[in-house]
Amino acid sequence: WFEATEPGTYDLRSSLFNGDSLTAMNSALVVHSGADFDAWLESVSDIFQGRTMAEVGELLYNRQGCAVCHTTDGTPRVGPTFLNMYGYEFDTVEGVRITVDDAYVKESILTPNVSVIAGYQPVMTPYAGILDDREIEAITAWLRTLSDKGGDLEEAAGAPADTTAVEQEEN
Q: Alpha carbon of 98 to those of 3, 103, 106, 147, 162: distances in Å?
């Protein structure tokens, strides 16, 4: 067992011999001071830092498991594809015609079984209390980039996610 007592980079090697190929496997352990580690952890914990809203939306699509039920290539799964969803009209299982807009996306994420697109079952897990408004805005921005009716794609995809609303108003 190895216990680092000072910051630095330490080479690691296996004590087991399991063929010649293990000698070519190099690893390193990087040890930071407590303050440096805390600063690093804070910088990587903010998913919005250094990304556009659309990039954060795509990241959340993958992290939150959306890809299990929803594709981006037009192929339906348990849920409808996200390709060309935003801005389009769909019938619901209740017989209501809806347009997929910001409000519908938010409703579908927070309370997904309220208004289900026809041909699908009301089986999606609600994300109320899991995703916040800013994360839902990011997912919506990303969905807009997947649709030919997504509106101003430069606005949807290009706005830096780590810019505050005040900074955006000033620009």
A: 59, 11, 13, 16, 32
Q: How far apart are CA 155 and CA 139, in angstroms?
A: 14
Of 86, 70, 46, 52, nearest to 156 (Cα)? Answer: 52
- State the chain's mean pLDDT as an integer: 87
Is the CA virtual torsion 169, 84, 48, 69 positive or negative? positive
* Model pLDDT, residue 40: 83
Predicted pLDDT of residue 161: 65
At residue 122's C-alpha, the angle toward residues 119 and 128, to 5°, is 135
Q: List the beta bridge partners of residue 10.
A: 29
